[in-house]
Amino acid sequence: MDSQRLLATFLDLVQIDSPSGHEAAVAAYCRGALTAAGCVVEIDDSAAITGSDTGNLIAELGGDGAEKVFFSAHMDTVSPGEGIKPVVEQGVIRASGDTILGADDKVGIAAIIEMVRVLQESQLSHPTIGILLSVGEEKNLLGANAMDASGFCGQPCFVLDSENQPGEVVVGAPFHSSFKATFTGKAAHAGVCPEKGVSAIAIAAAAISAMQLGRLDEVTTANIGTISGGSADNVVADSCIVTGEFRSLHEQRLNETGAAISTAIQTAVAGTGASVDVVWEESYPGFLLDEGHPIVQLALKAAKRIGLPAQVAVTGGGSDTNVFSKKGLQAVTLGTGMKGIHGLGESMAIADLETLTRLILQIALDYR
Ligand SMILES: [Zn+2]
Fold it and tell me: How far is the CA of 179 from the centre of ligand 1 (A)?
C-alpha cells in the first residue's frame, strides 16, 4: 500500500464537487483511475431513471479463478458540499470552510482505488474484484435502486459506508417506511361560526398525540417529521398534512408500528366529519445477517488478521447495503472511521483511511 498515494487520491476526490445528481465529474475521475489500474469500467444506463448527470460506475479487475467479490461506495455527497477545501492537521483531515468534508463516502472510493492499484501491482493471487460506485445514495438510495444487479445475485459485497471503526462489520440495518397523512376538515369563520367548521389541525394533533413516537424498542423507532396546514388565524383549518417515518430491524415490528400509526389516525378522524387520506411507502427493506454468516466471518477474520478489534454492529440508518441485500447480493457494511458525517465538523483520520484500505485488501486476498 502506498500511503502517500492513498491520501492524495482521497484529497483529490473530496475536491471534486459531487452533490447528489451531479456525480459525473467524480465518476470520470474514478473511471480514469480504475482503468489505469487495470479495471474494465462501465457506466450503467441508470441516469434516465435517477435524473443524475451520470450512471452508476461498475468496474471489474480480473482475477484468477472463478470467485468474485464486490466492494462498493457511493459517489454523491450531502450539502453543503461544493468547493470543499480539505486541511490536514495532526493526522486528521477536515474541511477548512463552511462545507462538509465528503469523507462520506469518498473514503470508501479512495480505499477501493488503492486496493485495486496494489492488487494490480503485486504478483499476489486474488479473486476477481467487482466495484460498484453508486450515484444518489443520499437521495433515497436512488442509484443502487436503479442498478441492474441481476448478474450479481448471491455474490458477496462489502459496502464501505459507515461511521463505525474499521474492523466493525455492520450486519443489520432497519426496514424503513414513511407515510403522508392528508387530513381534510371543513373551513369556517373562527369567530363567527366555529361550530360549522371541522379543524383538520385539531384532528391531526389528536392523531399524533395517540401515537407512540421515538424509540419504541431497542431496534424500532417512529417519528413525525413535518406538519403543515391551515390558511389563517381566523379560519378553522380545513386541511393539515402530516408526514413521518418508522423503522425496525424486524419486519414484523415494522408492520406492527405502521398498523398502530394507522389506528391512531383513523381513531382520531372517526365521527368528526373529517376525512383522511394516507399514503404509505416502504422506502427500503432492512437486512440482518447472522454473525456466523460466511461473509461476516470473512470480514471479521480479515480484521483480526491485521490486528483490529473485530466485531459486529447494527445501525439505525439505511444505505446501499439495504438495496443490494434486497437485490440478492450477500451484502454487509464496513466501518470506515469517518466521523461527524452530514455536518460541518466531518473528519477523517489518515490512520483510519489506511487501516480501512489494509482491511479490504486482506478481505480480497482471503476470499476463496
Ligand atoms: Zn454514506
Answer: 24
Nearest to 243 by CA among 263, 229, 257: 229
7 phi and psi, to 5 degrees? -65, -45
Through-space distance between the first and last CA atoms of the chain, rounded to whole angstroms: 22
CATH number at residue 360: 3.40.630.10
φ, ψ at 174 (rounded to 5°): -75, 155
Same domain, 261 and 311: no
Residue among 44, 60, 76, 163 flagged as catalytic: 76
The last residue of one of the domains, among 263, 284, 305, is 284
Q: How far apart are the C-alpha atoms of 285 and 125, rounded to whole Å?
A: 36
> How many residues appear in the chain?
368
Burial class (CB in 10 A: 0-12, 13-18, 19+), 28: middle
Spatial neighbors of 178 by CB under 8 A, at least 6 apart, are: 243, 244, 245, 246, 280, 281, 283
Is 53 a residue of the active site? no
CA-CA-CA-CA torsion sign (162, 164, 166, 167): negative
| Residue 20 cell numbers, joined | 447528489
78 C-alpha to ligand 1 centroid (Å): 9
pLDDT tens digits for range 70-107: 999 999 999 999 999 999 999 999 999 899 999 999 99
For residue range 292-338, list pLDDT tens digits in order: 999 999 999 999 999 999 999 999 889 999 999 999 999 999 999 99
Domain limits at 254?
176-284
CA distance 81 to 78: 6
Whether the CB-CB separation of 50 and 142 falls below 8 Å is answered with yes
Q: Among this protein's residues, is 137 annotated catalytic?
A: yes
